[in-house]
Write a structure and sequence with these properties.
Order of helices and strands: HEEHEEHEHEEEHHEHEEEEHEEEE
Radius of gyration: 21 Å
CATH superfamily of the largest domain: Clavaminate synthase-like
Helix content: 10-25%
CATH topology of the largest domain: Double-stranded beta-helix
Strand content: 15-25%
Largest sheet: 7 strands, mixed
Structural class: alpha+beta
Number of helices: 8
Distance between the termini: 33 Å
C-alpha cells in the first residue's frame, strides 16, 4: 500500500487498513468523502460494548506516514543511501491476522532513519515481518538489529564465540528435538523480556522446518468482556526451569550448548494481560514453555486456567506460517506474538542465526 494511492488517501484524511483480504481507505474522525468502517476496533472502540479507556491504536496511521515520507522525499534532502531510501518500501500481508513480507530494502546496507521508522511501524502493525533474498553476515545482521535497540545475550545458551549476542541455532540430522520446538514467547523468564527477535536462515532443509506465529492481540480481543475483566489484574509466574533446568527440554539438543542450569529455576512475575508500549493494545501474555502458574490461585485452579489460555492463545485463526528459504530474515514482536519452530525434517540439517533486541518490563 505504497505510492500515489496511499498519498491520495492520506491527503483526503484517511489511512489504509488491511481488512477482509484487501486494503481499504478508512476515514479519520472529522474527515469527509471516505467511508468509516464500523467493524474495525481501533475506530469503533465500543464495538457494541461499554467504552474502554485504552490508548488509541495508530498503527496503520504510523505505517502510512512512514511510507508516505519515503515515497515523495522533500526537495533538497540528502541522497546518501545511509539517510534515504533507494526505492519504495513495500509491505504485503501474508495472512489475515498477522505477518507481512517487506520488499524494496537491502538489509546489508546502512539504513536511514525513515526506513527504520517505516519498518518499526510495520512491525507494530503486522507483528511479524519477512525479508526475502537477503545476504547478511553476522555483523550486518547485528547492525540491523541495533537500529531497534540494544542487543541481548541469552542467559542459558552459549552464543557465537566471536559474537556473544548471536545464537547459532543448529539442528543436526540426528537431533530428535529442535531448539524452539513448541509454542512460546522468547525469554519471558526475564524481568525485562526481549522486545523482538531477528532470525536469519543460513541453511534450511529441502522441505519442512517452517515457523508458526500466533497473534496474542487477536487472542485477547477474542475473549468475552467477562473473561477480559477476570484476566485483567492477574499475575503469572514465569521461569526458565522447565526448559533450561536440569533435564529441561532445551538441554537435549546435540548441537546447542546450554549453561547456568542452577539459575534456570529463578522466577519472575508478569501480568497475564500486557499492554503494548507502542500501540496501546492489550495482549495475552502466558506461554507453555515458561509460564508455570497464576499467582494467588490454588494449584488446580491455576493449572486449569493456564491450560485453557495456552490452548486459546494458539488457535489456528490467530496464526500464520512462514516457510524459510536461504537468505530469508524474519523479525517478530515478542510483545504480541508466540511462535513455534516445527521439527518435521528428520535426517536433514537446519542452521539459523538469531539475535534479540532488549525490551522493557511488561505492564
Amino acid at each position: 500500500m505504497v505510492g500515489a494511492v496511499a498519498v491520495e488517501w492520506v491527503a483526503a484524511g484517511a489511512f489504509p487498513a488491511w481488512h477482509a483480504g484487501r486494503w481499504e481507505a478508512i476515514q479519520r474522525p472529522g474527515s469527509a468523502g471516505l467511508r468509516h468502517h464500523p467493524g474495525l476496533p481501533w475506530l469503533d472502540e465500543t464495538n457494541g460494548r461499554q467504552p474502554r479507556r485504552e490508548r488509541p491504536n495508530t498503527e496503520a496511521e504510523n505505517v502510512t506516514d512512514a511510507m508516505t515520507e519515503t515515497t515523495q522525499p522533500p526537495a533538497g534532502r540528502s541522497t546518501d543511501p545511509a539517510s534515504d531510501l533507494s526505492g519504495p518500501l513495500t509491505v504485503e500481508p501474508i495472512s489475515g491476522v498477522l505477518g507481512a513480507e517487506v520488499g524494496g530494502v537491502d538489509l546489508s546496507a546502512p539504513l536511514g532513519d525513515r526506513t527504520v521508522a517505516a519498518i518499526r511501524a510495520a512491525l507494530v502493525a503486522h507483528h511479524v515481518l519477512v525479508f526475502r533474498n537477503q545476504s547478511l553476515t553476522a555483523e550486518q545482521q547485528m547492525a540491523f538489529g541495533r537500529r531497534f535497540g540494544n542487543l541481548d545475550t541469552h542467559p542459558f545458551v552459549d552464543g557465537n564465540q566471536e559474537y556473544p549476542e548471536v545464537l547459532d541455532i543448529i539442528t543436526e540430522p540426528d537431533d530428535r528435538m529442535n531448539f524452539g520446538g513448541g509454542w512460546h514467547t522468547d525469554v519471558t523468564f526475564l524481568a525485562e523480556p526481549d522486545l523482538g527477535s531477528i532470525l536469519y536462515a543460513v541453511e534450511v532443509p529441502s522441505a519442512g522446518g517452517d515457523t508458526l506465529f500466533a497473534n496474542q492481540h487477536a487472542a485477547y480481543e477474542a475473549f468475552s468482556d467477562t473473561m477480559k475483566d477476570m484476566l485483567d489484574g492477574l499475575v503469572a509466574v514465569h521461569t526458565a526451569g522447565m526448559q533450561y533446568g536440569q533435564g529441561g527440554l532445551s538441554t537435549r539438543s546435540n548441537a546447542m550448548e546450554t549453561k547456568n542450569m542452577d539459575a534456570a529455576n529463578d522466577t519472575v512475575e508478569h501480568p497475564v494481560i500486557r499492554t503494548h508500549p507502542e500501540s496501546g493494545r492489550k495482549s495475552l501474555y502466558v506461554n507453555r514453555a515458561f509460564t508455570s502458574r497464576i499467582k494467588g490461585l490454588r494449584s488446580a485452579e491455576s493449572a486449569a486456567l493456564l491450560q485453557f489460555l495456552f490452548d486459546h492463545a494458539t488457535r489456528e485463526d490467530f496464526t500464520c506460517r512462514l516457510s524459510w528459504r536461504p537468505g530469508t530474515l524474519a523479525m517478530w514482536d515478542n510483545r504480541s506474538v508466540q511462535h513455534y519452530a516445527l521439527h518435521d525434517y528428520a535426517g536433514q540439517r537446519r542452521v539459523m542465526r538469531r539475535i534479540t533486541v532488549k525490551g522493557d518490563r511488561p505492564y
